[in-house]
Amino acid sequence: MSFDQQILEASKKHPRPARIFAYGTAGFRMKADLLPSVVFRVGLLAAARSRKMNGQSIGVMITASHNPPEDNGVKLVDPYGDMLEATWEPHATAFANAKTDEELVEEFNKLHTSLKINSSAPARVIYARDTRASGPTLVDCLVDALTATNTEYTDYKLLTTPQLHYLVRCTNTKGTQYEYGDVSETGYYEKLSTAFKQAMKNAKSKGTITVDCANGVGGPKLRELVKYLPSQAEGGVDIKVVNEDVHKPDNLNSQCGADFVKTQQRAPPSSKAAPGDRCASLDGDADRIVYYFIDEDSNFRLLDGDRIATLAAAFLGELGEKSGLASKLSIGVVQTAYANGASTKFITENLKLPIQCTPTGVKYLHHAAQRFDIGVYFEANGHGTVLFSPLALKTIATHEPQSPSQADALATLTAATELINQTVGDALSDLLLVEVILAHKAWDPANWLSTYTDYPNRLVRVEVGNRNVFKTEDAERRLTEPKHAQARIDELVGKYTKGRSFARASGTEDAVRVYAEAATRAEADDLAQKVAGIVK
Ligand code: NG1
Ligand code: ZN
User: Fold this and answer.
1) Its pTM surpasses 0.90
2) Is the predicted ipTM greater than 0.90, yes or no?
3) Where do the Alpha-D-phosphohexomutase alpha/beta/alpha domain residues begin and end (predicted)?
């Protein structure tokens, strides 16, 4: 069957702006007015991908996460709920850059021929969007592509990114032994709340957690989730939702949200938190979360992705031991070079767990985490989750506890496997996980912070002529090009006590990022500035 004519006609409605597009770590992301042709073409690719995957549903998420309100973006979700397989990213880029409608049809047909895709096979897509004003128009572009390729589709309207990932996995595993949950938004809340109640059985939450939702889709979705959760008095947790205004588009990610808090190292100015109050911030599509509080000396204290990773790894390790499973389950942690060196040291020396360092980008961390029985991965910015291998799940499910305390630990561990989103980092799921752990340990955020002390660090963004000349090795920790740059960085780093620094080209911005750590704040700042001088 040929879709040539239908694609040609539909493509005419979505002319391509003169610009080069690239499917990067976060799909395509840019000013929303540049996106109609991109979203249309991503729709064509989603149809092809579904056909290639025997008619399994592919997800399309329209969001630009923590970017400003005028931006938008689009990314694809593979049948099992993970990100688009890397070998297909160049196809997305090729589609987006086809110069004419005819060339686009040619690319589309070329892909079908080279990958032996049967265009008569069924194609299915499910999609959703965040709260941006440009979302509905971009959805129309997507639907034009799905119609032109005779693709069945379901519009889930407003969802967080992880909710769409959840739905993709549920849709494709329905009726199989790998069934993940009910194929509905309600199913998502039910799965999380059931697991949460089970995990809280032997724990008691303290105080209230205030959650800043970046004025994004996380706001209404967290409000909905709260309806399914018991309050603190009922054995659950008290959640206060703030920054949940999705009706004024300009407020999205403005002066609030996880990215603001992490990069500015301060609470949202609107925060009314008193010293010691437990606070968290989500990003615009609710796949990232960071915690923070104001200490007794009025200092802002951040508990970022590294802290969540160490907290989760320690807790799961303890549960493994208490349930008598320690020898059967290997736990590992996956980080990027941006993880604070103190967290790496804590995981290795105190938790005694193996660590793997991968390049920046969740897809790398996710794949690396799959190699452990229990793989904990978080980027420092708060995006991450914990993956349980099929073998780990089976081991946990079939384990016979030898005592009531083993049985309790096993029940909590089992609940954790259900509570933690297995498809992708999920701020709502991570929020509940952290709340469960703090409740079990009877910890406030200051107790959590006291587990280790971060090394002073500094991240700077350097504008360069051409960032493509920066090539790296060793999980982006060393530059291979430009020549001699790494030798100069090494020489500098050697002059600082506890110095560590690296430079790499950003995958999402036209810049090079320099990260530095040293024994003192002043030295970290100084080292970062000097390394920035080398790459400039
Ligand atoms: P780049 O621009 O490649 O550094 C940034 C973040 C990543 C990741 C991606 C995707 C830092 C230093 N980098 O990547 O962690 O989240 O965006 O959103 O925070
Ligand atoms: Zn996000």
Assistant:
1) yes
2) yes
3) 56-85, 97-175
